[in-house]
Amino acid sequence: MATTPVYLDHAATTPLRPEALAAITAELGEVGNPSSLHASGRRARRVVEESRESIAAHLGVSAGEVVFTSGGTEADNLAVKGIYRARRGADDRRRRVLASAVEHHAVLDPVQWLGDAEQADVSWLAVDDLGRLRLEWLEKEIAAAPETVALVTVMWANNEVGTIQPIAEVAALCAEHGIPLHTDAVQAVGTLDVDAGTVDSLALSGHKVGGPHGVGAVVLRRGLAVEPLIHGGGQERDVRSGTLDTPAIAGLAAAVGASMRDRGERVERLRELRDALVADVLATVDGVTRNGDPHDCLPGIAHLSFEGCEGDALLLLLDAAGVECSRGSACSAGVPQPSHVLLAMGMDPVAARSSLRLSLGHTSTRADIDRLVEVLPAVVARARRAGTAR
Amino acid sequence: MKVVAALSGGVDSAVAAARAVDAGHDVTGIHLALARSPQSHRTGARGCCTLEDARDARRVADVLGIPFYVWDLSDRFAEDVIDDFLEEYAAGRTPNPCLRCNEKIKFTAVLDRALALGFDAISTGHYARIVDGPAGRELHRAVDPAKDQSYVLGVLDRDQLAGAMFPLGDSLKTAVREEAARRGLLVADKPDSHDICFVPTGDTGAWLRDRLGAAPGDILDAESGEALGQHEGAFAFTVGQRRGLGLGHPAADGARRYVLGVDTATSTVLVGPPVLLDVDVIRAERPRWCGPAPVGPVEGHVQLRAHGEPVAAVVEVVDVDVDGDGGPVVVAHLRDRTRGVAPGQALVVYDGTRVVGSATITRSTRA
Description:
The complex is a heterodimer. By secondary structure, chain A is an alpha/beta fold.
């Protein structure tokens, strides 16, 4: 491929922000373990703590509530397993975990695992056909036996279809019964107005906000008991151990800061671009359906179904034509399964498999969309001839 | 050409793909997920389609710098290969699932999909040669007699052959391993796959019993009709089998007993002396021709099992199927008697090194 590919997979990972690159590279040349007491250690500690304070300020919490992790998946695992164990440890009746049916695998799998391995009684909370949580289900589930609920976990915004969840309402319901609420805000931070103070626990990831891979954070409300997953030096409030990665943390803070500063302008631009993408695709190709909530949706995500196509075939053909996007969820073996999110939204498996997620980010341009729309008709026509695999 | 390189995660398909790249083709690597339960990808079963195989295949594609995708054909594989395998055994025959997979999965489902997506051919790591002959493309035995896989490709028809590419047919396996190492393909030392990929334990009898259930019956002496013992299911026996009969005492003359026939309808297994296994007329149904269907008798060789020796024979096609279903029947008259021909196995017809075609064995008799 002679030309640079068109990158429409920002929800998978987005390019590093220049501010993050500068912060990381400045730190990479330095020595110092933030836990050391000498001057080099103190210097590193200062970078870490200033990063923590900056992130905390942007998320509306206090610095002590930000716990650095190896990424979004660890943040979700720590919250889900750690809160469950602490809550059940304090009162053995608390075995119920209420989770939305459209959670990312970083939440879905630990919840499932608690059910399989630690006697958790898991309820998957239904969503409507736009992927939005049905609050009355949550209400009913809690009301059935509030004293037995260990935690509720509902993502801030969905990574596949982009639907934004009614987190404020969920938080109010949970607070009423004193039940901790965890939210996976990996796709929301830096794009939506995220006030982490409204929830008890919130996960974010570095590389989704233009920071480095391999770093993330979980915001844990002061006073919330959480059992650690990783034991060791107890560096992070005794909830998470391991030598802190100063360059990555500096990069994370720089990326969060940068994305907060240009959020308003960027979100507006992304929404315009995304709406143009959807309009252009609908105007050029027949049999396309947009999925997810058209209004309460992440501004950069267009999730589309192409009637009579296999999503895999579209991906392969788009990749060959220099356009990079995704099916919306990946699996370790690369075996495509119909998305649990789309199935939960009531889509049939064939339609679910005919879908693509096109996601825009801070480097996206109008030219990206023009290129997509240029190659898409031939790609869809070819994929339709290939038909749906059986 | 735009080529799909099927990458199993093994050494052969890796080198085949590398050669397709070297030949200047626009190559895309595809790994076939054939195991039905995605969870089995995590259990590390041996054979094909483990998570490790998928990773190895992906790594090969990375080294070659080609795109890589996994195509999930587990439903098709379950229907066309595994269900067929069970039905054949349940009917007392001994199928070869590799031929079935080549016919129905690799060179139908995958090839059709590849062609529809704009590819021109599929490259695989099979050891066989495609030669341009006077009447079009021909399928021939591989140069390496120990690795020749033309037998399991004998089901390919002309159209399928037109979309196939076997870059290893001119090579010895040892050379392929050396080449893999030279190219830095980390699968160079990976052991060859064996057995049936969807029977992870390798114990086909137990696998069949789990699925078909026990169907006990008698083991009968083919000559006297005397019941010599009991079995748990006739389907677990194959014509020509000697071991595992569980008959405590030898025949009166001290000769070893062999399975001569399997009848799952009556749950009986016939056993007798090996001389009764010697046959020289073999009938087979459902022929598939790798080129034009032969006109008149073919004087050549037939091969009756995957690693069997070729047997000199005259093969003719009888158009009216006296056995019942109306399709053409292939009759092979062997020059010398051969032993232990199991119904269900493929009869592959060769003219020299060229594969003429194949058919599924129904009966074997003595002239």
